[in-house]
Structure formats: structure tokens, C-alpha cells
Design brief:
By secondary structure, the protein is an alpha+beta fold. Helices cover 34% and strands 22% of the residues. It folds into two domains: 23-142, Jelly Rolls; 155-235, Winged helix-like DNA-binding domain superfamily/Winged helix DNA-binding domain (Arc Repressor Mutant, subunit A, Orthogonal Bundle). It contains seven helices and twelve strands.
């Protein structure tokens, strides 16, 4: 049984009244940058590419992936349509920083690439843009901190459960068939990469969570999770 002193996961639902930075924030005539098509499995960037631009995902989905010398991969984040990605440091063009990661299309995608100098000049044209930029990357920083926290858990159920709740709050959609369940657009392989666990370990742990009624999955059916029940199981704290 997971420890009951694990704190509940925060989310940004209470601050969603603020407007984040999206592809709709930039001119749609591509005057700031260029549009690139990326095939499924193709790379927006590779580890040795320079970090001199910011991207907006116009359509599709992008995974940010780190890889070690043995080829083991860890998914650092998943970018959905409309979101910005690829910002590391705004002094990067002068410092010649390299990406160090892969940005890989999980489906056929289209991205808008903007050079950092052009993007910084654009931000300075509007106070609303600066506010949206600040809000977006405060959320991004909070999400990064959250991932560091759940990767620190040694228990498989705690770690994987936190990953599931994180995906449910950021990418999940309500299930039409199961009341109170959230559909997660993720495979067991992707869960293993996000949780830094082996594929067999994920399979065993997911089986335990399914027997407790916290997740539901079958062949040719989507993975669903009961966020409230899983959160109570992990923390011992009811939201009611």
C-alpha cells in the first residue's frame, strides 16, 4: 500500500482563466518563421542541433525524448497541437547551446519554427503577449518540477500512479463509456519511457492497479483511469 504522506498532485485548473501562449498568439501568415512538415517518427531536432529557435505545433503531436549511451529513452514531455516548445534559454544563439534531446513526431505533424531573436522582438510588441508567455512557462516549470518529484518515488505504484494522474490532468479526455473515467492517449511503452521503468515492470504494476479498479484497459480499447480513486489510493486523502 502506498504511503499516506505523499502529497496530492497540484494542477492548473484554478488558473485556467489566464491565457497561455499558443500558436494563435503569433501571426498566421508565417511572417515570423517557416512551417515544416514532419512525418511520423521524424525529428524536429536532434541532440547535436543548435538551440536557436522556438516552435509552435500547428497539428499533430511531438514527444521530447532524452537518450543515454545505451539507447534507453525517457520521454521528457509531450507537446499537443497549438502549444509552444523548444525553448531552452534565450541566450542560446549567442552561447551556441545544443539541444541534447530529440523532438520526435508521434504522428504526422506540422510545426512553425521561429528564430529566437525574431520571437523576442515580437514579444516586446504587446504586454498581453508577455503575460501569456510568462503564464505559459510558469506552468511549464511547475510541470517539470512535478515530474522530478514523481520520478523520485522508488515505489512502482507511486511512480506510475503519479505519471497516470499527470497525463490525466494534462492530456486526458472524459470517457463516454465509463463514468468518472479519463481516457489516456498513451501506450504501455510510452508509460515506461515517461516513468523511467522497464516495459515488463510497467505491465506488472498496471495489472495491480487494474485489479484494484483504478485503471481499465483491454486489447483494442483505450486505457482509462479513475483519477479520484487513484489519487485517494496514493495519498489517502479524499477530495470530498
Amino acid at each position: 500500500m502506498p504511503q499516506e504522506n505523499i502529497p496530492p498532485l497540484p494542477d492548473h485548473r484554478d488558473c485556467e482563466v489566464l491565457t497561455g501562449l499558443t500558436v494563435d498568439s503569433v501571426p498566421r501568415d508565417n511572417s515570423l518563421g517557416r512551417v515544416r512538415g514532419v512525418r511520423k517518427g521524424g525529428s524536429v531536432w536532434k541532440p547535436d542541433d543548435r538551440s536557436d529557435g522556438i516552435f509552435f505545433l500547428q497539428s499533430g503531436q511531438i514527444a521530447i525524448v532524452a537518450s543515454d549511451r545505451d539507447g534507453r529513452e525517457l520521454v521528457l514531455g509531450v507537446v499537443e497541437a497549438g502549444e509552444p516548445f523548444g525553448e531552452l534559454c534565450f541566450c542560446a544563439p549567442k552561447k551556441h547551446f545544443l539541444r541534447g534531446t530529440y523532438a520526435r513526431a508521434t504522428v504526422k505533424s506540422e510545426v512553425l519554427e521561429i528564430k529566437l531573436e525574431a520571437f523576442l522582438s515580437f514579444l516586446q510588441t504587446s504586454r498581453d503577449l508577455l503575460q501569456a508567455f510568462t503564464f505559459t512557462f510558469c506552468c511549464r516549470l511547475s510541470d517539470c518540477q512535478r515530474r522530478v518529484e514523481f520520478l523520485a518515488y522508488r515505489g512502482a505504484e507511486e511512480r506510475l500512479g503519479r505519471v497516470l494522474l499527470h497525463i490525466a490532468s494534462t492530456r486526458g479526455k472524459p470517457s463516454d463509456a465509463l463514468a468518472g473515467q479519463i481516457v489516456l492517449p498513451v501506450s504501455h511503452d510510452e508509460l515506461a519511457q515517461m516513468a523511467a521503468m522497464s516495459r515488463p515492470h510497467v505491465t506488472v504494476t498496471m495489472g495491480k492497479l487494474r485489479r484494484r479498479g483504478l485503471v481499465n484497459y483491454e486489447r483494442n480499447k483505450p486505457l482509462t483511469v479513475d483519477p479520484e480513486a487513484l489519487s485517494i489510493y496514493l495519498t489517502g486523502i479524499s477530495s470530498s
